Amino acid sequence: MKVLVVEDHEELAQTVAAGLRREGMAVDVVLDGDAALERTSANHYDVVVLDRDLPGLHGDEVCRSLAGAGHPARVLMLTAAGTIDDKVTGLGIGADDYLPKPFAFAELVARIRALARRSRPALPPVLVHGDLRLDPATRIATRDGRRLPLSPKEFAVLELLLAAGGAVVSAEQLLERGWDEFADPFTQTVKVTISRLRRKLGDPPLIETVPQAGYRI
């Protein structure tokens, strides 16, 4: 899952991003509305966590622009103003959900996951392939009843491959959806992660390399 955090308070933005990364999400951070529109025009995000009260280009205008452009990302609007009228206004301009500050981090994570499920074709709550089971909600993957000790990136890659339903997923797609903006596209990051994942999944092998195309379950 890839998330863009748009928050002008840099310390809060980085704290939220760090917490979301611990939850296995790929997170980019921008500090103003103009940068948010620039980033969303160039990248695919499942969810945009958008502070409403941004300086310069207001969060409302960012939300209207995303909705008007038909951007596929779901928008979770954050604001210190939490009255019913504020919520109605935020939802009316295109936000998909609304969370007043201060908020509990666990609730933020739950709302982001719920929105991400709505940003793509419906998937079953637990992804299953043979004796392999992956539960995105609990962050638990098992094979033949044995829990797999996966890192956040290994879990993210396995989830993307299972969600593809047997279709080929390119290394570029895995890098875009599973890593944040600091990932170097010229490294062997995806290849190394796939190699580690294969070892942890064990035999018989589940991940196939499709030459010059990518990987599939």
UniProtKB/TrEMBL annotation:
GO-annotated molecular function: phosphorelay response regulator activity; transcription cis-regulatory region binding
Sorted UniProt keywords: DNA-binding, Phosphoprotein
GO terms for biological process, alphabetical: regulation of DNA-templated transcription
InterPro entries according to UniProt: CheY-like_superfamily (IPR011006), OmpR/PhoB-type_DNA-bd (IPR001867), Sig_transdc_resp-reg_receiver (IPR001789), WalR-like (IPR039420), WH-like_DNA-bd_sf (IPR036388)
Ranges where the Response regulatory domain occurs: 2-116
Residue intervals of the OmpR/PhoB-type domain: 124-217
GO cellular-component term (any): cytosol
DNA-binding region: 124-217
Gene3D superfamilies: 3.40.50.2300, 6.10.250.690, Winged helix-like DNA-binding domain superfamily/Winged helix DNA-binding domain
Residues annotated with 4-aspartylphosphate modification: D51
Protein name (Swiss-Prot/TrEMBL): DNA-binding response regulator
